[in-house]
Fold this protein.
Amino acid sequence: MPLVSHKVDYNYIYESFPDMCLSLNPATGKIISFNKTLLDTLGYTGEEIYNSTLFDLYAENEADKVKANLISLGQNRSPKYSDFILKKKNGELLEVTLKLTFVKDDLGNILYSNAVWRDVTALKNVERALALERKKVDAQNILISEQHQNFVDSISYAKRIQEGMLPASSEINAVFPNNFIYYRPKGIVSGDFYWMYEKRDQVVFSVADCTGHGVPGALMSMAGIALFDQIVAEQDIYCAGIIMNKIRTGIIKALKQGHTDSTNSDGMDAGLCVYNKTNKILQFAGANNSLIIIREKGDPLLDEKGNNYPIYSEDESFALYEIKGQRQPLGYYFGMGLLFEKKQIQLKENDRLYLYSDGFQDQLGGDKEKVKKYLSKRFKEMLLTQASASFCELKGILDSIHKSWKGETNEQTDDICIWGIQV
């Protein structure tokens, strides 16, 4: 009785199995038995299946794969193929996966094999749809990559143009044999720039920081360089305050600022010096930027009236002075009205001057737990500490400090430009 019950349970499982099942003679391909799922799925009657061979159920181009599997079974080897296409009675094609097992006698001869076909048509359709979408995505990625490369190429070309507008190192070194420039754009192009013009005994030089960085900043910087060229070189003006006032007027005019209530605030901060090589008198005017001067301690720094400039910081050998610029930009701003004024300083041999943008001191980093700016005070103290270092050494120190402070996890905060000159 238990055996009969077991047989009934087996038949029930076989008949109700969701996949198509059949048993066949592997030598002839003759079908021995099958389940109801096979009939329902393929649309054949039981008699039609019994009168068919395995080959009749497959699509025409599947014959070679079916034969190869039968040969493998006859040689007691695993079937070679598992993906097939079946042909329904109405001619529709069905994609299936095949799992073959076989039953052997005591001598190891195959009595019959059991085949289980699983309908994967819907799955294959999804896979094909996904493959098509992947192909489209790949094509889009290629297009985006090409567009990105074109953009990078364009910006790289713009970088060459921008660098071509900056004074050449040979020109600067001819005027200031002992100098360095630490110039580190945040991106490919920069919103910071340095500029110089020499005529007879007068040298005009500046470091400027334009609104923004990257492409917008670079466009502004090129406009700024053009204004410096026009006002100083073409108009032959050598008064720091007048130059700055004219540059501000030129920026407001070029950007059409001040005509509406929603006027943009684009422009630049800058420190500008006019240096007389003969008498070593330096004029300075600053728009939100300062000038740092370091000289040997005990020799006060005098203005044009003979008054001492206050010492910002000092050590045993050197004193650092900060000649502050005015708290206004080169460009339109609400409540503007003050003119830029020059400050005059009598320099001496070996004095060190520093013009700089705020990119170095604004760099975020330091403590990994609490990211903070490097800050102006720390920057000035570092310059005083390194007052005896050569400019070549100092440039390397600046780069090392910046990288260390920024760390591996923080991006560069802004463009950086530091120009050091020893007279």
